[in-house]
Amino acid sequence: MAEPTYLTPEGAEELRRELDNLINVRRPDLARKLAEAVAQGDLKENADYHDAKEQQAFTEGRIQYLENILRSATIIQSDGKTDVVQIGSQVTIREEGSDDDEVYNIVGAAEANPAEGKISNQSPIGAALLGRKKGDKVRVKTPNGEIVFKVKTIK
Q: Using one digit for the tens of pLDDT, what is the confidence trace for 79-94?
């Protein structure tokens, strides 16, 4: 059985905005481009036509993906507790031997974006943090080897 999809309220809103843009802006724009390309005739060697068809297929696939995620997702509501790491928590950790803190928001895989500090509850670090408390030392196997870090704060 598939793992449930979790979204924060902010993540769900972001996906809804993307879906709205794809349906109400991108889809009509691509339909116009396709109509213009068809009007040019000879579709076999028409690069505009093939490009628009490819973009249309990608757009329709993304629309279906977003609709499915939003239809089946569990929206994580913060219960205000900050003593244990859960999906929706913002966690500050410090790797052993480092002087720098790292801050991560634990989110569902559908809204994970490591560049923005949003890590999936299914990622090695995200999974290892779930259920941990402030002060806990956590040992994690990552693709770059094993790391040990301490949980500094949970919000």
A: 666 789 988 899 999 9
